[in-house]
Amino acid sequence: MDTRTQNPRPRPASASPELSSDDITAVVQEASRLHGQEIKQQGAPSLTRVEDAFALAEELGIPEEHVRAALARRQEQKSIAAGGFARPLLFGAAGGLGTAVLLTLAGSPLLVTVLVAAVVAGGIFGIAALVDLMKRNPQKSEGPAPVPGTCRVCFRPAHTPQSTFCEEHRYKA
Q1: Per-residue pLDDT tens for 97-118?
Q2: Which region, left, alpha or beta, applies to residue 14 given φ > 0 means left and ψ of -120 to 50 means alpha?
Q3: What predicted TM-score, i.e. pTM, was given to this entire model?
Q4: One domain, residues 25 and 77
Q5: 3-state secondary structure of 150
Q6: Does 37 fall in a domain?
Q7: Domain for residue 171, yes or no?
Q8: What is the C-alpha to C-alpha distance for residues 84 and 87, in angstroms, rounded to an integer?
């Protein structure tokens, strides 16, 4: 009898418990895509926990490192999307305040100081917001699809024919 079926391998808890069931289902679909097989949306069950995704992937023969890679990608996408405009607003406010302080120390009239500081703050906010939006574009950050049997990090042969990580780069508990 197989020991894996009797004693399932313990998996660490998810680093981000705020993933919804749709996100976890997307993780399994992404892991299956990384593995080289597609799961149709209708065939994917509704999953509520990350452990369910690992169990389903194990049933489908999807390597654990593919699920971990898909989970990390999904968590990264959620953290980037949750950023909003707080950082650009902070950069714009700091730039405007710094400009106002410098112009005041230089002896500029109040009206000129306020107008120039507002223009600088708006410019910095706009540039920071555009940079933030460019970081959110997943198509630009994705590289080519990984090839089963080849390590996606160093391009050496993978540790199993269906994996995309070599012995050096695969996850080891």
Answers
A1: 999 999 999 999 999 999 999 9
A2: beta
A3: 0.39
A4: yes
A5: strand
A6: yes
A7: no
A8: 8
